[in-house]
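Q: Can someone sanity-check these two? First one:
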Amino acid sequence: MIKYVALYKQPADPEAFEKAYFESHKPLIDKVPGLVRQEIGKVTRTFVPGFLEGSEPYLIAELYFESKDAMKAAFASPEWQVSGANLTEIGGMELVAMFSAEVVE
């Protein structure tokens, strides 16, 4: 299994960002083919500050896929493209670092 992780910094207007994220972006991600599950966590405490160069983590989205190939296929899908455009529209691309991680245990 592999997961795609999106780590968001604190937005200028957290309430507006969350509303846009949960009402428009998350439902689009739910439609991405090959997605096994999606977990979203709101950071409640940072134990070692400073990792994000003066901005603390705010939201973590983890998208799970069965394999690297399944994730690659998802990235090539129209649903993924639409979700990326939406993230840009709601201002999320300016806040996010994205990476993948192989689930080893």
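And here is the second, same format, sequence then tokens:
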Amino acid sequence: MRAHVVSDLETLKALAHPLRVTVLGELRKHGPATASELARAIGESSGSLSYHLRQLERYGFVVDDASRDGRERRWRAAHDVTTLPDALHETAEGRAALGVIKNVQQEHLTRQLAAAEQDPDGPFEHSDYFLRLDPPDLEQLMRELHEVVARYVGRSGSHEIALHLMALPAEEP
């Protein structure tokens, strides 16, 4: 599984646009596409999508797809997953950019939970844990979980699922 670790504020800010996060997700989920195909899929203009795709390319999130036919440029996600380290929380700009990304993720999760309600026979598994961990333990846990998930990437099973791995501060009683 190819990962892109965002280590600087400029790269984070380049990603922190709701349309860019959505486009990157579409490319990861459905594979290579042209700006026109993406525009139809998400209801945006192809001109707008072209601009945002070039910005994503500039910061290493998308690349030209080698399978293009020469008429229209096809794009693909450069990585399977993007990691946003804790250090990005250290500035107000970093927190604001992460807030945009979290809002888009929250919208996706809300839609996916609603879709699960519409399909009571579809796959659904839910667990929650409350752990007390020091930062190195949390890093190790997440690294191990990502390794497990990586073993399942690329399979072509009968159900498409969205898997969310989140480590969040527990709410105070």
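A (reply): Looked at the second one. The helical segments are 9-15, 18-30, 35-42, 46-58, 92-118, 135-150. The first helix runs from residue 9 to 15.
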